[in-house]
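User: Hey, quick favor. My workstation is busy. Could you predict this chain's structure for me?
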Amino acid sequence: MNLSLKNPLDESNIIIVIDSLDGGGAEAQAIKLASGLKKENIKVSIFPLRSGGTLTKQAKNQNIEIVEGGFKSTRNIKSFIKGFLFLCKTIHSKKNAIVHTFLPFSNFVGSIAGIISGANYIITSRRGLIKLNYLKKKWRIFDKISNFLSDKIVVNAEAIIDEMLTLDSVNPNKVICIRNGINLEKFRIKNYDRNYIRSQFGLLESEFAWVKVANFSNIKGHKDLITSFKNLDPKYQAKLFLVGKDIGSLDELKTLVFKYGLQDRIKFLGFREDIPEILLSMDGYICASYTEGFSNAILEAMASGLPIIATNVGGNSEIIKNKITGLLFKPKDKNEIINTMIEIMENKPLSEKLSKEALKTVNEKYSTKKMVESYIDIYKKALK
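Assistant: No problem, here it is.
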């Protein structure tokens, strides 16, 4: 696409405000959006409220302008005030600023800063379901304030729109759904040696390798997976690889694995940037989360050609059509987890059918290009 010719956004500045660039789905989407906008010669910068973060280097390597706010915590009043004023100054310095925020805290801070600084347009985001603990109760009032102040609210799943209209009485014309997008080219690796990668993980060809990519928090269902593996018959020669950043529950999970004697069957890989290489070496993907907006990890598993099983929560059922592009199961139901894993491992024709349809779907619907085009359309309408 070439949207840069006679582009009404030529004289505008997109400022993406986000809590941090410390690895996560929303953070990854923000970087993909900024990168896509740069390719269209649209001026864009990312303003992480907190400095540092595991994805900062990745963003800078793509020549994305990063302006860090220096927030330390909501309890550090001095850093909060200083960072907020700096955000206001940054927005005010940008001609025809469009403020686009991504997470609850940055929605609140960014929308107020946008109003004070005279931003042309304010876009906030909702990326999960309230009823499934996406937002802590104490933040609900702040969320309502940012909803009121924003010109447009972007969600990544239809289920979130339904909830917002019911719980928050938001004007339906104010909310729009834009699906997450992924860079499909990253999963078309030249000269990829699957056997070599598997050998690095100590995997035999006869073993079935399951993988889950998610930060280690209680809402992601890791405990259910570990307990299910304890009760899974060893005859299936299954192993589980857990990839993600620790945000509070990793030590507890490692203790549980040790308690059950599963150290040889369950491996913790930590935060990784080589996700495509890892996924392409696996045999199946599993999502046991209690809440999801529109899972980047599931999209990446689809792009890797893996059969996918996932909890029937949030946007998962919008991505996965049960028994067509994957299998869905009830959250927290360990017996269903086991039975669904077994169905994939025992039924190779079904597994191959699901993988093929999932790969076709992600290529047709969920590219970064489509996502960026959708956001550009919003930005253009904001200037009319």
